[in-house]
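This follows on from our talk about sequence and fold. Please put the record directly below this note.
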Amino acid sequence: MYNKFIFFRNNKIYYYIIGGYLLLIIWGGYFYKNIGNYEDRLKNLLLSQTISSVENASNNILNRMLKKYSDFVYENYKDASVRSENEYKISDLLNDDIDSVYILYLENKKLFYLLDASREDRGELGERFEPIEENIFIEAQTNRESKTFIQPTIDKLGFTLIKPIVQHDKTIGFLVLDYKESSLATLSSLLNVSVKSLLYAILFSLFILLVLISYMLHTQYIKYVMYCNPLTNTLNRVYLTDNYDKINFKDYYVALVDVDFFKRINNLYGQKNGDKVLISIIRRITLLLREEDIFIQYGGEEFLLLIPKKNMEEPIFKNLLEKIRRLIESTNFRVKNYRFSVTISIGALLQTELEKSLQDAIHKADTALYKSKHNGRNSISYFDLSQPERIYREQLKEMIESDKLVCYYQPIKRLKDSTLHHYEALLRIEDGDKIIFPDKILPALEDSYLYTFLTKKIIEYNIKILRIDSRMRISINLSADDLINDSILFLLLQNSDLSARLYVEILETKSIDYIRVENSIQRLKLLGFKICIDDFGSGYSNLTHLLNLSIDYLKIDGSIIKEILHDKRAYSIVKTFALFSKENNIEVIAEFIDNKEVIEVLRSFGVEYGQGFYFSQAKPYAELEHHKE
């Protein structure tokens, strides 16, 4: 599907740019090879510019003489006084550059002197004139146009102007002006400068053009490299961002592919091996795709497929997705000495022509993907246009990016005197007057790259609060996977100056890589962070967590605390946890405290802290009591 020439194949205009530049190079070579011809043309052009003023003056003189005499040659030949008068007139053409000026008449295709006002070596009346460049005179007679030519043999002469004299629609002779050698030297010097300047200008222009084309190609190729994964030759999300308006999404089917339980592979075999598995999956999928299909690595283990509708009916597209699913399901992947299988979930949108934007189409495919994952995974779902509107994963992302993410803060207080110890930050999304709670947010982001994106946003939000309010102390909730995520850990380490006021609560999860999580905990504790196990006693709660993780606080889940006055087992469990914690220098926090009697029981167990509606419900930062002071 992709190869190393994809850059030029997708940007064919660069073929034309390079081809055009090569044609310019060929033209430049042809120009250099024929520079002598161009030099002669340029000489004649410069000569014409040099004689323009003289030619105008000579035209005026000739016109006056021709009007005065009905037979110009005869009158001058027979009458010496007329000849003397006209020689005087043409002598006005002599100047510092012109040595000789004379008029020749034609008789039987031969030239003879008629008038001569030259300073030296004047020709006698009727004396035969033998031209060096006879063709020039013939050409001037035929075309009745002035001609110039450079004198190749006569010393002290530079070039000559020949001007045909026409009377009664017949060329009767020529006015000839000989320019000095010094005028030609000046002209030649100017000519050499002009030719060299033109040549240098062409070479410089070609060089600048080469630099510009090279820079443009380099810039665009670097941009392309940014788009492309070199290990798989597939595109990444940056490509989609930069080319969003160029993709006519209505001409494509849209599908999102997600690798099921991929985090487990990373946890079991390490991220490097996980990446190798991901590359293998991508390469297998591309085997079934066509050259015109677009494959984008949309998230870590999530892929976007844009399949052109041209020459592909809906049943064929559905069959393609099923082939992809079966191919991945039937493949045995190998890491070290372990073999295992992987499955994928797919969500697709067929009726893209009904959508307003590509992002809307992706939203719909994402909703279908969400359905596949909640239907047991390893399946394909298609967006049903009759479905009621839901909160889509990408819509959540847009809400988070547009500053709709906020945190509400619930106080955690000392049970002995109800004084504030710190606040727990609780996620909310404010969408107008509507508040979206975590139970509507986190399931939609489960096993998605957006989960990490959300976690970082929460950390950044609370860091900002801590920086503007030195009295605030906040605990934030992180999963075990978050603690082994380099980008999240780096964000915490970057802000370690806040460690005394920023607590980390580890959420209960089914599987934990204890070695990696404990290493992260130790790094955080060295910088002063306090660590707490959250919701202990519910869900996947496991005493192994206490034995393998170096924690400072243990938060007992509210589902146990609220039964402590009515259930002996709950009573015994809390008492046991409290005793265990005290013996291991772990402080206990109780959730869901809603009355004073519960506080008395907890204090008898030695529980130091508590939170719940008895003290306060969660509030926005602006509504906190200490903030109002």
Q: What stands out?
A: The chain has three domains: 1-228, 234-389, 394-628. The domain at 394-628 is CATH 3.20.20.450 (TIM Barrel). The chain is about 50% helix and 20% strand.
